[in-house]
Amino acid sequence: QKFVYDFTEGNRDLKDLLGGKGANLAEMTNLGLPVPPGFTITTEACKVYLGSGEEPAALRDEVSAHLDALETRMAKKLGQSDDPLLVSVRSGAKFSMPGMMDTVLNIGLSDASVVGLATQSGDERFAWDSYRRLIQMFGKTVLGVDGDLFEEALEAAKEAKGVTVDVDLDAADLKKLVKQFKKIVTRDAGRDFPQDPREQMDLAIKAVFDSWNTDRAKLYRRQERIPGDLGTAVNVCSMVFGNLGPDSGTGVAFTRDPASGHQGVYGDYLQNAQGEDVVAGIRNTVALAELESIDKTSYDQLIAIMETLETHYRDLCDIEFTIERGRLWMLQTRVGKRTAGAAFRIATQLVDQGLIDEAEALQRVNGAQLAQLMFPRFDDTGARGGEGPQLLGRGIAASPGAAVGKAVFDSYTAIKWSRSGEKVILIRRETNPDDLDGMIAAEGILTSRGGKTSHAAVVARGMGKTCVCGAEEIEVDTKRRRLTAGTTVVEEGDLVSVDGSTGKVYLGEVPVVPSPVVEYFEGRMHAGADDADELVAAVHRIMAYADRVRRLRVRANADNAEDALRARRFGAQGIGLCRTEHMFLGERREMVEKLILADTDQERETALDALLPLQKADFIELFEAMDGLPVTVRLLDPPLHEFLPDITELSVRVALAESRKDANENDLRLLQAVHKLHEQNPMLGLRGVRLGLVIPGLFAMQVRAIAEAAAERKNAKSDPRAEIMIPLVGTVQELEIVREEADRVIAEVQAASGTNLKLKIGTMIELPRAALTAGQIAEAAEFFSFGTNDLTQTVWGFSRDDVEASFFTAYLEKGIFGVSPFETIDKDGVGSLVRSAVEAGRATRPDLKLGICGEHGGDPESVHFFHEVGLDYVSCSPFRIPVARLEAGRAAA
Ligand code: ADP
Ligand code: MG
Ligand code: MG
């Protein structure tokens, strides 16, 4: 097994083995781009180390061989005292984890070689600046020294000299600082800063391995659903120097704007600095376009390289580069993160450029991004002086969305307040990895410093969280927990509104308006020229691609005509679940009470007769809204006690009345009924088909209402396509009994109305027994609809209404679930029952229609699963329909 790859040996397809950074460094090397030579230690080596606590035996020799080759190539040895080779040791996992893992620059410097570097470069200041950086980074990330100690010493040095930026410190100052830094290391780490360059390198490699398992890294992985056992690769890369004076510098660039997708020159550049300075947002950068006037040759070369990379990767790339005395070096590239809106725009732009086809365009976007675009936005037309929200300032629109919450100035408070149900906006001068929990807890993030590539921006974008960064008019005072903007002071707890799409920040609550994408789906907006419409046009095209290729049909869960009409506008191809329980609520509750209290057949029939016309009217409206499309109506499902008064309330009422000796007959009977119907486990009690079997005439009445409504529509020359669905069936006998009765009722209605209704009768598969005997059940069912909510509850044996609050957090934290099984289908358990029921059902009845209704119908990952097991449709809430359409297209493309 080979544990080390030279940059010339890898390529971009080896991300599993070399990590993203290593694979792309190799790819750029092979493209002939200027990458400083180096090598990558594989994730396999990391896994061995993490598993056993020991590096694999062969690793040391392999590293030595590659280091020898590197030294030969560079014609100097690592840390050689008269002319040292310096390297960076850089982490790089398969998935980019911004700021999560540690990188150490300038390895190879020591008390001896710093002098050599000074002589060789002819720049003493540079040599000592590099050395202090090494001690600082190495001390912090490898030896675990508190980073603030170094920062404080650096600040003190600047203050003593009366300067504000580190470039104003000269060689003598830095020499002193190095001495202090070394003392800090000795004191805080209990050992001296290692002078042996190879020891430095080996310790740094180990530290990178270890950084895979820091709490921060684990939390980020859980958030992003990145598996915990991938390990990280380690890149050893010869150093190039951006801190060699004004003709040197370092920067980051995007081949397109990650916020809008527009092509152009986007990025930040910092003269006379090493890489970390830009990413950390410590000094103020200049816009990349300004590099043209600073160093035209490097600028032109960079633009050319960006074009090469974008054409090669056929996507937006982000880039880290360094210029050393007028010479450009590429230090990193990857397919860049982007906002949801940019993802759609870029995908269609690349199609237009002929770089990708429509199928590929579908893979470049996803349902989560579409869902994000459907969020409402701020309406800030009223936010100008005077009353109402006040504009505090404008920063960089780093991650879109409209967030309103109470101002908090530290992560601890953000977490505490959000736990108690408050919405908060985390406001920091700049964020660092320690703020991660606070960022997760917040509705939105606001910083006063840092650019599009600052920690806050990158992480927020990854989490899909609203973020405005670099709002420079705002002064953040963390200690006093407040910010000032001009003359306005915002204290902790004040409401602020943060617009991640425009970068604007307001004091007060700004009202929100619907998203243009929703306006488009609603048919209220069409393609045009301004910014919102460009997005709409891109969404329109992507949706068309998805609809063209998808095999899964998408239906809506809707109970009334209004929802049905909206669902239809959003692209629903029918109703997959019409719940009938709401038809028993409101003013009709009284009739239901009568039904439940009925002692005689006569009383029961009277109650049902009263309900019939009301239900029929509901169905007529619904069939009208969905004319020509299937409408699956589920017969009554919930336990009857849900329609009766609350047991405690009623008991109190009756007791009070009795004490006054004026108890009312009806209340007494109700109380009796409530007691009789009370169940320990209503979820597993008298509900679903069981109701139909024990309450004579109930299901017959519902079937009659459906059939008569359909007949009336038919006779009005319309095209109703009703389907009757029996819930909670566990055995085919239940279904047969209900079916017989339903068939009889339908025949009567057909005869009376002179129509042929072609009503389908089917069942939900939502109990394990139903799934296990699906072959038998299909004999009596023309369709199955998997009720994955109940199926998940019954397969796992836990109740959805209780678990979220009790033990789910613990399960998620312990990694037992990556995500709640009520959100994304549990493929191995619940999913395998679905799969076998599909096969058994189709074996019995080849033309069996198969669908799913339940929250999973609108969940991207679940939609892919349902496509794969061969369902005919998914059904979800109206607002999730576009997401389901898109994901069904992506699954098929
Ligand atoms: P991250 O994954 O946090 O971006 P990197 O490994 O990319 O960490 O390194 C952090 C910074 O250090 C980057 O900005 C990069 O440009 C700079 N850097 C890394 N290696 C070198 C090198 N060999 N020479 C010069 N700068 C480097
Ligand atoms: Mg980097
Ligand atoms: Mg159910």
Automatic annotation (TrEMBL):
Its cofactor is Mg(2+). Residues 422-503 form the PEP-utilising enzyme mobile domain. GO terms for molecular function: pyruvate, phosphate dikinase activity. The keyword Kinase applies. It comes from the Bacteria. Residues 537-888 form the PEP-utilising enzyme C-terminal domain. Transmembrane segments: none annotated. Keywords: ATP-binding, Kinase, Magnesium, Metal-binding, Nucleotide-binding, Pyruvate, Transferase. The keyword Cell membrane does not apply. It catalyses: pyruvate + phosphate + ATP = phosphoenolpyruvate + AMP + diphosphate + H(+). Residues 59-284, 290-341 form the Pyruvate phosphate dikinase AMP/ATP-binding domain. InterPro entries: ATP_grasp_subdomain_1, PEP-util_enz_mobile_dom, PEP_util_AS, PEP_util_C, Phosphohistidine_dom_sf, PPDK_AMP/ATP-bd, Pyruvate_phosphate_dikinase, Pyrv/PenolPyrv_kinase-like_dom. Its EC number is 2.7.9.1. Belongs to the PEP-utilizing enzyme family. This is Pyruvate, phosphate dikinase.
